[in-house]
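Worked Example 4.2. Consider the chain below.
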Amino acid sequence: METVVDRIRAGELPDHACEALVRGFLPVPPEELFVAICLIVKQRDVLFADALSTLETMPEAAFKTFLEDKACDPDVLDFYLHRVPLPGPAKAVALLNHQTRAETLRDVAPSVEAEFLDLVVNNQVKILEEPEIVDALRNNPHLSINQKQKLDDYERLLLKDLVSPAEELEDIPIEEVERQALQEAKEFVAVFGHEKLSSKDFIQDIKGDEDDSHNVLKQIARMSVPQKVQAAIKGNREVRGILIRDANKLVCSAAIRSPRITEAEVEFYSNLRNVQTDVLRLIALNREWTKNYKIIHNLVRNPRTPLAFTTKFLSRLTQRDLKFLQMDKNVPEVLRKMAKRMARTGK
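Applying the procedure from the previous section yields the following structure tokens:
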């Protein structure tokens, strides 16, 4: 059955009926009225004052129920957050609704009332999707010192996780590195949580045929980036062994950070030449793993390990390994020279 909203969208509702609806003279359910008012005002802004008068008569509970609906149209949410003075509970659920666009939060962030600021400041997924939210929040006069600190900390943590110090050693401007990292993050959150098939389904399929390596590769090949991240964290050793080599930093970093990973695996991965430098960096930063001599020896000999770590670990190598290292053509020349000098002087 065709609704009033359908007729408005099709341009079939007469002007006099639109005016009557906006003024609250037509008997329509609240959820239809809210959408209808949004559509009509966008077409005929002259009716906005009448629309506000009608909306002021609506019960707060009806507003809240409508705006917290996970199927609510993002354009409608944008309209109500931008233009309508919403009652407190309704505004809170609108800000939290996952259908609300990151761009909408960016636009309203400078003027959000103090009592709602935490809802935007703590929405890390939307901030990843639209980093400009941070700057917009900083323009809000109600932002507290603690909230400013949280934004600063969050920016630092984001860049720490997504930007490798190894890249800073290369001839790449840090601004470009940060831009690439933020773009990767935005691509990740743009699809995170919206797949028709979850990584849990993939993982269950993989567990059912653990002996079939071909099946595992096929399953992983079908995964999106967010699904791979979840599989890297929750999957078995075989899954980690594949995803640790993934070209996407978020995926391979999730594999090395998996709570299920063993030291024996780390020892093996530290020797791989076909992993991202981020994987080796995360291994090198783990104090427990670097107590293992085999791991630090592998890291030093691995040409993909950032020099900042290999030079630090060099002093822990035995004289025998230092002598072999100075002849290893696969490691950087500066490392060979340091090894030669340390072997000659006995450290």
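DSSP finds 25 helices and no strands in the chain. The chain has four domains: 1-100, 101-163+173-190, 192-261, 287-347. Compare this with Example 4.1 before moving on.
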